[in-house]
């Protein structure tokens, strides 16, 4: 398999919203207690900056305030060329956030409403999700989760 670039990996994240695809977001408390949550609204904002809509963050929000380290698993079973984990620092952008986070909040706060999923399993979530914050991930490196190269660094952003 050719070595992917961050661009090709981030492009796969564009598929998350549609077709019932999810990425898995891992966070940990200050004590290291892990939490993993499925995410549907994930995109590349620009460069090595990814965004995820906070529709239902609970434990994730608490963990981010204690420990900004995150991992985002991008692995779609039907797409063997995309088993990767993006590692980085997560920051919540909310109404009133200053600087770059405020700009990203303004740009992404209503994207789920403007561009809802086209395929949502019946009974999944409330009919009108509301974005409470935007998780901004500054990607630092990407590792493989493919069986033959599991854990190997694919690229450093």
Q: What labels would you give this structure?
A:
157 residues; alpha+beta; Pnp Oxidase, Chain A; 8-stranded antiparallel β-sheet; 8 strands
Describe the structure in brief.
19% of the residues lie in helices and 35% in strands. It is of the alpha+beta class.
Structural features, described:
The protein has 157 residues and is an alpha+beta fold. The protein has one domain (6-156): Electron Transport, Fmn-binding Protein, Chain A (Pnp Oxidase, Chain A). It contains four helices and eight strands. The protein has helices spanning 6-13, 59-66, 99-108, 111-114, and strands at 23-28, 34-39, 42-46, 49-54, 69-74, 84-93, 133-144, 153-156. Strands 1, 2, 3, 4, 5, 6, 7 and 8 form an eight-stranded antiparallel sheet that branches. The protein is globular and about 45 Å long.
Share of helical residues: 10-25%
Shape: globular
Treating each run of at least 4 consecutive H or I residues as one helix, how many helices? 4
Q: How many strand units? A: 8
Low-confidence spans: none
Largest sheet: 8 strands, antiparallel
Q: Indicate the structural class.
A: alpha+beta
Strand residues, percent: 35-45%
Q: What is the gyration radius calculated from CA atoms?
A: 15 Å
CATH superfamily: Electron Transport, Fmn-binding Protein, Chain A
Report, as a whole number of angstroms, the end-to-end distance: 20 Å
CATH topology: Pnp Oxidase, Chain A
SSE series: HEEEEHEEHHEE
* Overall tally of domains: 1
